[in-house]
Amino acid sequence: MRHICYITGTRADFGLITSTLRLIQADPRFKLSIVVTGMHLAPEFGLTVREIEAEGFEILGHVPCEVANADGAQMARNIGVMLQGFTDLLLLNRPDIVLLLGDRGEMLAGALAGVHLGIPVVHIHGGERSGTVDEPVRHAISKLSHLHLTATAAARERLIRMGEQPELITVVGAPGLDGLDAFAGRSRDELCNQEGLDAARRLALLVFHPVLQEADCAGAQIRLIAQQLLDSDYQVLALMPNADSGSLDVRMALQEFADIGNFVIKTHLPRQEFVAWMAIVDLMIGNSSSGIIEAASFGTPVINLGTRQNMRERNSNVLDVPVEAGALRVALSSVPMRLASPYQNVYGDGKAGEKIVHYLAGVSLTQGLLNKCNAY
Protein backbone atom coordinates (compact mmCIF):
# COMPACT_ATOMS: atom_id res chain seq x y z
CA MET A 1 0.00 0.00 0.00
CA ARG A 2 1.48 3.34 -1.09
CA HIS A 3 1.24 6.21 1.36
CA ILE A 4 0.41 9.44 -0.49
CA CYS A 5 0.77 12.66 1.51
CA TYR A 6 -0.85 15.79 0.07
CA ILE A 7 0.09 19.24 1.40
CA THR A 8 -2.58 21.95 1.33
CA GLY A 9 -2.49 25.60 2.32
CA THR A 10 -5.52 27.26 0.70
CA ARG A 11 -9.17 26.71 -0.14
CA ALA A 12 -8.13 27.01 -3.80
CA ASP A 13 -5.66 24.13 -4.04
CA PHE A 14 -7.82 21.88 -1.83
CA GLY A 15 -10.93 22.59 -3.89
CA LEU A 16 -9.12 21.68 -7.09
CA ILE A 17 -7.73 18.39 -5.80
CA THR A 18 -10.58 17.18 -3.57
CA SER A 19 -12.17 14.84 -6.12
CA THR A 20 -8.76 13.29 -6.84
CA LEU A 21 -8.08 12.83 -3.13
CA ARG A 22 -11.42 11.05 -2.77
CA LEU A 23 -10.40 8.63 -5.50
CA ILE A 24 -7.04 8.00 -3.82
CA GLN A 25 -8.68 7.40 -0.45
CA ALA A 26 -11.20 4.97 -1.92
CA ASP A 27 -8.51 2.92 -3.65
CA PRO A 28 -7.16 0.00 -1.53
CA ARG A 29 -3.74 0.42 -3.14
CA PHE A 30 -3.23 3.68 -1.22
CA LYS A 31 -3.08 5.22 2.20
CA LEU A 32 -3.85 8.97 2.03
CA SER A 33 -2.87 11.63 4.54
CA ILE A 34 -3.04 15.43 4.50
CA VAL A 35 -0.73 18.08 5.94
CA VAL A 36 -2.68 21.29 6.62
CA THR A 37 -1.20 24.78 6.80
CA GLY A 38 -1.69 28.43 5.83
CA MET A 39 -5.15 29.92 5.29
CA HIS A 40 -6.90 26.70 6.29
CA LEU A 41 -6.06 27.33 9.95
CA ALA A 42 -7.07 31.02 10.06
CA PRO A 43 -10.59 31.99 11.24
CA GLU A 44 -10.49 35.21 9.21
CA PHE A 45 -10.17 33.12 6.04
CA GLY A 46 -13.04 30.80 6.91
CA LEU A 47 -11.17 28.16 8.98
CA THR A 48 -11.41 25.86 5.98
CA VAL A 49 -9.60 23.03 7.78
CA ARG A 50 -13.16 22.06 8.75
CA GLU A 51 -13.87 21.15 5.12
CA ILE A 52 -10.86 18.82 5.12
CA GLU A 53 -12.06 17.24 8.37
CA ALA A 54 -15.58 16.88 6.93
CA GLU A 55 -14.16 14.85 4.03
CA GLY A 56 -12.87 12.28 6.51
CA PHE A 57 -9.27 12.53 5.29
CA GLU A 58 -6.54 11.59 7.75
CA ILE A 59 -4.73 14.76 8.82
CA LEU A 60 -1.07 14.06 9.43
CA GLY A 61 -0.58 17.38 11.19
CA HIS A 62 -1.21 21.13 11.29
CA VAL A 63 1.58 23.62 10.54
CA PRO A 64 0.35 27.10 11.58
CA CYS A 65 1.94 30.25 10.20
CA GLU A 66 1.12 33.97 10.19
CA VAL A 67 -1.26 34.79 7.33
CA ALA A 68 -3.53 37.53 8.69
CA ASN A 69 -1.53 40.50 7.44
CA ALA A 70 1.31 38.95 5.48
CA ASP A 71 3.61 41.08 3.36
CA GLY A 72 6.39 39.81 1.10
CA ALA A 73 8.77 39.39 4.02
CA GLN A 74 6.24 37.41 6.05
CA MET A 75 5.43 35.22 3.05
CA ALA A 76 9.15 34.41 2.81
CA ARG A 77 9.38 33.71 6.56
CA ASN A 78 6.34 31.44 6.33
CA ILE A 79 8.19 29.22 3.87
CA GLY A 80 10.82 28.67 6.55
CA VAL A 81 8.21 27.96 9.22
CA MET A 82 6.41 25.50 6.95
CA LEU A 83 9.65 23.84 5.85
CA GLN A 84 10.51 23.04 9.45
CA GLY A 85 7.01 21.76 10.23
CA PHE A 86 6.73 19.68 7.05
CA THR A 87 10.17 18.18 7.56
CA ASP A 88 9.29 17.01 11.07
CA LEU A 89 5.99 15.46 9.93
CA LEU A 90 7.42 13.77 6.83
CA LEU A 91 10.44 12.47 8.72
CA LEU A 92 8.21 10.93 11.38
CA ASN A 93 5.68 9.38 8.94
CA ARG A 94 7.84 8.65 5.86
CA PRO A 95 5.17 8.64 3.10
CA ASP A 96 6.03 7.04 -0.23
CA ILE A 97 5.06 10.14 -2.23
CA VAL A 98 4.62 13.84 -1.44
CA LEU A 99 1.89 15.20 -3.73
CA LEU A 100 1.82 18.93 -4.53
CA LEU A 101 -0.29 21.20 -6.72
CA GLY A 102 0.42 24.63 -8.14
CA ASP A 103 2.71 27.48 -7.33
CA ARG A 104 2.39 28.71 -3.75
CA GLY A 105 4.97 28.91 -0.98
CA GLU A 106 3.37 25.98 0.84
CA MET A 107 4.15 23.75 -2.12
CA LEU A 108 7.70 25.08 -2.41
CA ALA A 109 8.33 24.25 1.26
CA GLY A 110 6.84 20.79 0.69
CA ALA A 111 9.09 20.16 -2.30
CA LEU A 112 12.17 21.27 -0.37
CA ALA A 113 11.30 18.97 2.53
CA GLY A 114 10.58 16.00 0.27
CA VAL A 115 13.70 16.28 -1.84
CA HIS A 116 15.96 16.59 1.22
CA LEU A 117 14.33 13.61 2.94
CA GLY A 118 14.63 11.40 -0.15
CA ILE A 119 10.86 11.15 -0.66
CA PRO A 120 9.64 11.27 -4.27
CA VAL A 121 7.78 14.52 -4.99
CA VAL A 122 4.97 14.56 -7.57
CA HIS A 123 3.98 18.02 -8.87
CA ILE A 124 0.64 18.76 -10.55
CA HIS A 125 0.23 21.86 -12.76
CA GLY A 126 3.93 22.41 -13.42
CA GLY A 127 5.25 24.02 -16.59
CA GLU A 128 2.65 26.80 -16.74
CA ARG A 129 3.35 30.51 -17.03
CA SER A 130 1.84 33.36 -15.06
CA GLY A 131 4.36 36.20 -15.19
CA THR A 132 4.29 37.25 -11.50
CA VAL A 133 6.12 35.83 -8.47
CA ASP A 134 3.93 32.73 -8.89
CA GLU A 135 5.82 31.72 -12.03
CA PRO A 136 9.35 31.40 -10.61
CA VAL A 137 7.92 29.68 -7.52
CA ARG A 138 6.06 27.20 -9.75
CA HIS A 139 9.22 26.49 -11.78
CA ALA A 140 11.28 26.11 -8.59
CA ILE A 141 8.80 23.48 -7.37
CA SER A 142 9.12 21.70 -10.72
CA LYS A 143 12.92 21.67 -10.54
CA LEU A 144 12.73 20.14 -7.05
CA SER A 145 10.08 17.58 -8.02
CA HIS A 146 10.87 14.10 -9.29
CA LEU A 147 7.68 13.43 -11.26
CA HIS A 148 5.38 15.79 -13.15
CA LEU A 149 1.67 15.61 -13.96
CA THR A 150 0.88 18.52 -16.27
CA ALA A 151 -2.45 19.99 -17.28
CA THR A 152 -1.57 20.59 -20.94
CA ALA A 153 0.79 19.37 -23.64
CA ALA A 154 2.33 22.84 -23.86
CA ALA A 155 3.20 22.74 -20.16
CA ARG A 156 4.86 19.36 -20.67
CA GLU A 157 6.96 20.76 -23.52
CA ARG A 158 8.02 23.70 -21.37
CA LEU A 159 9.21 21.37 -18.61
CA ILE A 160 11.24 19.44 -21.18
CA ARG A 161 12.85 22.70 -22.30
CA MET A 162 13.59 23.43 -18.64
CA GLY A 163 15.66 20.24 -18.54
CA GLU A 164 13.20 17.79 -16.97
CA GLN A 165 13.36 14.18 -18.20
CA PRO A 166 10.59 13.65 -20.82
CA GLU A 167 9.78 10.16 -19.53
CA LEU A 168 8.98 11.61 -16.09
CA ILE A 169 6.35 14.07 -17.38
CA THR A 170 2.77 12.94 -18.05
CA VAL A 171 -0.18 15.03 -19.27
CA VAL A 172 -3.28 14.35 -17.15
CA GLY A 173 -5.29 17.57 -17.49
CA ALA A 174 -6.41 19.93 -14.75
CA PRO A 175 -7.99 18.13 -11.76
CA GLY A 176 -10.13 21.21 -11.13
CA LEU A 177 -12.27 20.24 -14.14
CA ASP A 178 -13.26 16.92 -12.61
CA GLY A 179 -16.89 16.68 -11.54
CA LEU A 180 -17.81 20.25 -12.45
CA ASP A 181 -21.16 19.25 -13.95
CA ALA A 182 -22.26 17.75 -10.64
CA PHE A 183 -21.90 21.16 -8.96
CA ALA A 184 -23.71 23.11 -11.67
CA GLY A 185 -27.25 21.87 -11.09
CA ARG A 186 -28.50 24.78 -8.97
CA SER A 187 -30.64 27.33 -10.76
CA ARG A 188 -29.89 31.01 -11.12
CA ASP A 189 -33.16 31.84 -9.33
CA GLU A 190 -32.26 29.66 -6.35
CA LEU A 191 -28.76 31.06 -5.96
CA CYS A 192 -29.82 34.69 -6.38
CA ASN A 193 -32.71 34.31 -3.90
CA GLN A 194 -30.25 32.88 -1.40
CA GLU A 195 -28.20 36.11 -1.47
CA GLY A 196 -30.98 38.64 -2.07
CA LEU A 197 -29.99 39.30 -5.69
CA ASP A 198 -32.24 39.73 -8.72
CA ALA A 199 -31.95 36.81 -11.14
CA ALA A 200 -33.30 38.98 -13.96
CA ARG A 201 -30.43 41.49 -13.72
CA ARG A 202 -26.82 41.10 -14.86
CA LEU A 203 -24.59 39.34 -12.36
CA ALA A 204 -20.80 39.25 -11.98
CA LEU A 205 -18.63 36.93 -9.87
CA LEU A 206 -15.61 38.92 -8.64
CA VAL A 207 -12.46 37.12 -7.47
CA PHE A 208 -9.38 39.35 -7.25
CA HIS A 209 -6.14 38.48 -5.47
CA PRO A 210 -3.29 40.94 -4.83
CA VAL A 211 -0.08 40.54 -6.84
CA LEU A 212 3.08 40.68 -4.70
CA GLN A 213 4.84 43.18 -6.96
CA GLU A 214 1.74 45.41 -6.97
CA ALA A 215 0.71 44.97 -3.32
CA ASP A 216 0.85 48.69 -2.57
CA CYS A 217 -1.93 49.44 -5.05
CA ALA A 218 -4.08 46.34 -4.46
CA GLY A 219 -6.70 48.21 -2.44
CA ALA A 220 -7.05 50.91 -5.07
CA GLN A 221 -7.30 48.25 -7.79
CA ILE A 222 -10.20 46.36 -6.21
CA ARG A 223 -11.96 49.64 -5.37
CA LEU A 224 -11.76 50.64 -9.03
CA ILE A 225 -12.99 47.25 -10.25
CA ALA A 226 -15.93 47.16 -7.85
CA GLN A 227 -17.04 50.68 -8.72
CA GLN A 228 -16.79 50.05 -12.45
CA LEU A 229 -18.97 46.95 -12.09
CA LEU A 230 -21.63 48.91 -10.19
CA ASP A 231 -21.45 51.80 -12.66
CA SER A 232 -22.03 49.26 -15.46
CA ASP A 233 -25.20 48.07 -13.67
CA TYR A 234 -23.86 44.69 -12.55
CA GLN A 235 -24.86 42.98 -9.37
CA VAL A 236 -21.73 41.58 -7.74
CA LEU A 237 -20.91 38.48 -5.73
CA ALA A 238 -17.36 39.11 -4.45
CA LEU A 239 -15.06 36.60 -2.80
CA MET A 240 -12.40 37.71 -0.31
CA PRO A 241 -8.79 37.24 -1.49
CA ASN A 242 -6.05 34.79 -0.58
CA ALA A 243 -3.65 35.55 2.26
CA ASP A 244 -0.93 37.28 0.24
CA SER A 245 0.87 40.60 0.48
CA GLY A 246 -1.76 43.28 -0.08
CA SER A 247 -4.71 41.08 0.89
CA LEU A 248 -5.64 43.19 3.93
CA ASP A 249 -5.99 46.25 1.72
CA VAL A 250 -8.22 44.30 -0.68
CA ARG A 251 -10.38 43.04 2.18
CA MET A 252 -10.76 46.52 3.66
CA ALA A 253 -11.59 48.05 0.27
CA LEU A 254 -14.26 45.41 -0.40
CA GLN A 255 -15.84 46.12 2.98
CA GLU A 256 -16.53 49.67 1.78
CA PHE A 257 -19.15 48.13 -0.55
CA ALA A 258 -20.68 45.84 2.08
CA ASP A 259 -23.78 47.97 2.66
CA ILE A 260 -24.71 48.21 -1.01
CA GLY A 261 -27.70 45.98 -1.65
CA ASN A 262 -26.51 44.51 -4.94
CA PHE A 263 -22.95 43.87 -3.76
CA VAL A 264 -22.56 40.63 -1.76
CA ILE A 265 -19.23 39.77 -0.11
CA LYS A 266 -18.24 36.26 0.94
CA THR A 267 -15.23 35.30 3.07
CA HIS A 268 -15.34 31.81 1.58
CA LEU A 269 -17.58 29.68 -0.62
CA PRO A 270 -17.38 25.88 -0.46
CA ARG A 271 -16.15 24.44 -3.73
CA GLN A 272 -19.54 23.17 -4.88
CA GLU A 273 -21.20 26.55 -4.22
CA PHE A 274 -18.42 28.51 -5.89
CA VAL A 275 -18.68 26.35 -9.01
CA ALA A 276 -22.48 26.66 -9.02
CA TRP A 277 -22.16 30.46 -9.10
CA MET A 278 -19.48 30.30 -11.79
CA ALA A 279 -21.86 28.34 -13.99
CA ILE A 280 -24.78 30.80 -13.82
CA VAL A 281 -23.23 34.30 -13.70
CA ASP A 282 -23.14 36.54 -16.76
CA LEU A 283 -19.51 37.41 -16.13
CA MET A 284 -16.57 36.24 -14.05
CA ILE A 285 -14.07 39.01 -13.42
CA GLY A 286 -10.76 39.32 -11.56
CA ASN A 287 -7.51 37.38 -11.73
CA SER A 288 -8.30 33.89 -10.41
CA SER A 289 -6.96 30.81 -12.17
CA SER A 290 -10.50 29.42 -12.02
CA GLY A 291 -11.46 32.00 -14.64
CA ILE A 292 -8.64 30.80 -16.87
CA ILE A 293 -9.10 27.06 -16.33
CA GLU A 294 -12.58 26.09 -15.13
CA ALA A 295 -14.97 28.80 -16.36
CA ALA A 296 -14.66 27.73 -20.01
CA SER A 297 -16.27 24.40 -19.18
CA PHE A 298 -19.49 26.34 -18.56
CA GLY A 299 -18.90 28.83 -21.37
CA THR A 300 -18.88 31.66 -18.80
CA PRO A 301 -17.37 34.91 -20.16
CA VAL A 302 -14.29 36.04 -18.22
CA ILE A 303 -12.57 39.42 -17.94
CA ASN A 304 -9.08 38.62 -16.68
CA LEU A 305 -7.50 41.65 -15.03
CA GLY A 306 -3.87 42.62 -14.71
CA THR A 307 -0.73 40.48 -14.60
CA ARG A 308 -1.49 37.61 -12.20
CA GLN A 309 -2.38 35.13 -14.96
CA ASN A 310 -0.04 36.67 -17.52
CA MET A 311 0.97 34.32 -20.40
CA ARG A 312 -1.08 31.37 -19.13
CA GLU A 313 -2.85 29.28 -21.77
CA ARG A 314 -6.35 30.60 -22.37
CA ASN A 315 -9.66 29.41 -23.69
CA SER A 316 -11.62 31.66 -26.03
CA ASN A 317 -13.96 32.90 -23.27
CA VAL A 318 -11.20 35.06 -21.71
CA LEU A 319 -10.67 38.76 -22.41
CA ASP A 320 -7.45 40.22 -20.93
CA VAL A 321 -7.73 43.78 -19.64
CA PRO A 322 -5.37 46.03 -17.63
CA VAL A 323 -6.62 47.36 -14.29
CA GLU A 324 -7.35 50.81 -15.71
CA ALA A 325 -10.66 52.67 -15.62
CA GLY A 326 -10.93 53.34 -19.34
CA ALA A 327 -9.96 49.85 -20.46
CA LEU A 328 -12.25 48.26 -17.88
CA ARG A 329 -15.17 50.48 -18.90
CA VAL A 330 -14.78 49.44 -22.53
CA ALA A 331 -14.46 45.75 -21.60
CA LEU A 332 -17.61 45.82 -19.48
CA SER A 333 -19.55 47.31 -22.38
CA SER A 334 -18.44 44.50 -24.71
CA VAL A 335 -18.27 41.31 -22.62
CA PRO A 336 -17.48 38.18 -24.71
CA MET A 337 -20.39 35.95 -25.71
CA ARG A 338 -21.04 32.85 -23.62
CA LEU A 339 -19.35 29.86 -25.24
CA ALA A 340 -21.53 27.20 -26.79
CA SER A 341 -21.77 23.94 -24.84
CA PRO A 342 -20.13 21.48 -24.90
CA TYR A 343 -16.79 23.31 -25.17
CA GLN A 344 -13.44 21.58 -25.54
CA ASN A 345 -11.43 23.04 -22.68
CA VAL A 346 -7.68 23.28 -23.39
CA TYR A 347 -7.09 22.11 -19.79
CA GLY A 348 -8.53 18.65 -20.27
CA ASP A 349 -11.53 16.37 -20.35
CA GLY A 350 -12.56 16.30 -16.68
CA LYS A 351 -10.93 12.92 -16.02
CA ALA A 352 -7.63 14.05 -14.51
CA GLY A 353 -8.28 12.33 -11.18
CA GLU A 354 -8.63 8.91 -12.77
CA LYS A 355 -5.38 9.44 -14.67
CA ILE A 356 -3.56 10.67 -11.56
CA VAL A 357 -4.67 7.65 -9.50
CA HIS A 358 -3.63 5.25 -12.28
CA TYR A 359 -0.26 6.99 -12.51
CA LEU A 360 0.41 7.04 -8.75
CA ALA A 361 -0.39 3.33 -8.50
CA GLY A 362 1.89 2.26 -11.32
CA VAL A 363 4.85 4.63 -11.35
CA SER A 364 8.16 3.06 -10.41
CA LEU A 365 9.72 4.62 -7.30
CA THR A 366 13.30 3.50 -7.70
CA GLN A 367 16.27 4.92 -5.83
CA GLY A 368 17.55 6.31 -9.12
CA LEU A 369 14.49 8.55 -9.36
CA LEU A 370 15.84 10.61 -6.48
CA ASN A 371 19.05 11.45 -8.33
CA LYS A 372 17.73 14.48 -10.20
CA CYS A 373 19.74 16.03 -12.98
CA ASN A 374 19.01 18.10 -16.07
CA ALA A 375 18.37 16.27 -19.31
CA TYR A 376 21.04 18.38 -21.01
TrEMBL record:
Q: Name one GO molecular function term.
A: hydrolase activity, hydrolyzing O-glycosyl compounds
**What InterPro entries would the database entry show?**
UDP-GlcNAc_Epase (IPR020004), UDP_GlcNAc_Epimerase_2_dom (IPR003331), WecB-like (IPR029767)
Q: Name one GO biological process term.
A: UDP-N-acetylglucosamine metabolic process
Question: Where in this chain does the record put each UDP-N-acetylglucosamine 2-epimerase domain?
Answer: 24-360
Which CDD domains does its entry note?
A: GTB_UDP-GlcNAc_2-Epimerase
Pfam families to which the protein is assigned, alphabetical = Epimerase_2
Q: What is this protein called?
A: GDP/UDP-N,N'-diacetylbacillosamine 2-epimerase (Hydrolysing)
Q: Which species does this protein come from?
A: Chitinimonas taiwanensis DSM 18899
